[in-house]
Amino acid sequence: MISGSAFAELPVAVAPDGIPPLPAVIVLPEGPRAARSVSAIQAELLDLLPTGWAWSRDLDTTLASLLLALAQEIERFEVSAEAMLPQVDPRVGLELLEDFERVLGPDPCGRDLVDSAGGLDDRRRAAHVRWTQQGYQTPAYYIALAGALGVEITIAETTPAVLGVLECGMELAPAAERFVWVVSLPETRVIEPELGVLECGGFLGELVPSLVECVIRQLAPAHTTPVFSYAEAS
Question: Which domain of life does the protein's organism represent (predicted)?
Answer without folding.
Answer: Bacteria
